[in-house]
Write a structure and sequence with these properties.
By secondary structure, the protein is an alpha/beta fold. It folds into two domains: about 1-130, Vaccinia Virus protein VP39 (Rossmann fold); about 145-195, Single Sheet (S-adenosyl-L-methionine-dependent methyltransferases). The chain has helices spanning about 1-5, 10-25, 45-50, 60-75, 110-120, and strands spanning about 30-35, 55-60, 80, 95-100, 125-130, 145-150, 155-165, 170-180, 185-195. The chain has a five-stranded parallel beta sheet. The chain has a four-stranded antiparallel beta sheet with strand order 6-7-8-9, with no helix packed on it. Strand 7 (about 155-165) and strand 8 form a beta hairpin. About 25% of the residues are buried. The mean pLDDT is about 85.
């Protein structure tokens, strides 16, 4: 279902943009790449095919298990770790870290500072941290985004709604509701997360 819900993404294009940013902005050769909030590690096969070592961190054990199964099926070696984005460590420094889909979910300025400190320790000096859809110049309160994707007889409707929790702290709550239909049955999943905007 994850693959259907996010099938609008062009991961090959995203990896191409990552490589363009590497060539423009890193001050060291990039060998190891860290993806934060990696989910099932959809970028890993393409990054590995282009010669990079890949490590991914996520809090969801289920998503990491899905990523490991995909890795084994494709014979794509990678490191996937269950860890908090505010406090993690890697066995080897990386030269690039990135996070996509606005997945930087911390709830306070203190959490955000802890996250940046953990990333700084994970990055080699001269490395780069890419944040996609994490920096918001306009308030997200009241924003509602919906998408509908399908594959075969499966249809996935996803809606993301935002509301302000604490304007001074730039804290919002995002609620994701997914309605999946297959075999004539509807299944609904809902999740809310608070996020400190940057």
């Amino acid at each position: 279902m994850y693959e259907i819900a996010f099938s609008y993404r062009n991961v090959e294009y995203e990896v191409g943009v990552i490589e363009q940013l590497i060539s423009r902005y890193t001050q060291v050769p990039v060998r190891r790449i860290l993806e934060l909030a990696c989910g099932p590690a959809v970028h890993a096969p393409l990054l590995r095919a282009r010669g990079y070592e890949y490590a991914g961190i996520d809090t969801s054990v289920g998503m990491l298990a899905h990523g490991r199964a995909r890795s084994a099926a494709r014979q794509t070696p990678m490191t996937l770790l269950a860890a908090d984005l505010r406090a993690f460590s890697l066995p080897h420094a990386c030269q690039l870290a990135f996070i996509t889909l606005g997945s930087l979910c911390v709830e306070s300025t203190c959490d955000l500072q802890a996250h940046f400190a953990a990333v700084a320790l994970a990055l080699e000096s001269g490395g780069l941290y890419l944040l996609e859809s994490c920096v918001n110049c306009a308030p997200n309160a009241g924003r509602v985004e919906s998408s509908q994707m399908g594959a075969g007889s499966t249809l996935v409707d996803a809606t993301c709604e935002c509301r302000t929790v604490d304007a001074a702290e730039q804290l919002i709550e995002e609620r994701l509701t997914v309605i999946a239909t297959w075999d004539g049955q509807q299944h609904q999943y809902s999740e809310a997360a608070r996020r400190r905007q940057i």
